[in-house]
Amino acid sequence: MKKYIHLLLLGCFSFLFSKAQEPVIDYGYPVRYMNLTLEQQQVKMAYMDVMPEKPNGETVLLLHGKNFNGFYWKELTGFLSAKGYRVVVPDQVGWGKSDKPGIHYSFHMLAENTRKLLDGLQVNKVQVIAHSMGGMLGTRFTLMYPERVKSLVLENPIGLEDYRTFVPYEPLDSAYKTELAATYESYRNYQKTYYPVWKEEYEPLVAAQAFILKSSHFTQAAWANALSSQMIYEQPVCYEFGKIAVPTLLVIGQEDRTIVGKNRLSKEAALMHGQYPQLGKRTQEQIPGSKLAALAGIGHIPHIQDFNTFIKTVMPFLEQQ
């Protein structure tokens, strides 16, 4: 196991030693691109479409969080494919290997892009697994295209509360300056808050986020990051959970205390929010017929921190749909 982690780290960090070309990070599966026109701009959306050897007729759509991309779905993609699922893994426009245009980011736009991707792949219906910010997108996608969603898994989604009601507003230019000042260490320090205990095996996820620091497109990415932070803040989905009409499973790591904009709160205010044990229960009560899986001792990324527990929690739900 240690040898595997060491090799993985070397692969992830290889971009740090290459100045002659754009940094590259290996997602584990072939990455393809779809052309889109957004606000009169031609952009490319990266995605993986992993076909199983023995198809079971089902397709799973994986939606990543804000500080992530298709890389962190690698193990889950392999597992699902081995079980017969076709797995579609987009990098949303603005993230990962996709273009990062300076446009108005909205969950409606990201959902429509995702629908166009599925149309292009001739995928009519999906089971959605959506993590963190992906949970907000997964909610919007389900509300916009309920006929395309067979089931929805919300894995420690952000947006279970309206950040506008307690997090001070941050002007876009200020958010951009913060993004420009990012370092490998600042990314790591933030990701450390996702786990009760930090382990060396989580380091590749930092590298997968930080590869953009060495890119010639870093300033574009920083602006896109600022714009997407504004999107999260200004476009809550928590008032619409009651409209979700597909089978839904909430997977909630009980140690998660994520708050978007937490650094702008006092310690006292921070303790009053981001309480995922309570937020999970409240959201489960709001989504008709939904189920809640409360995972003790687990933080913001269950499928990374404890893959086996995540699989044992999610697979029965997927299989019964």
TrEMBL record:
Keywords: Signal
Residues annotated as signal peptide: 1-20
Name of this protein: Pimeloyl-ACP methyl ester carboxylesterase
Metal-binding keyword on record: no
Residue stretches making up the AB hydrolase-1 domain: 59-163
Sample GO molecular function, one term: catalytic activity
Keyword Oxidoreductase: no
Organism: Sediminibacterium ginsengisoli
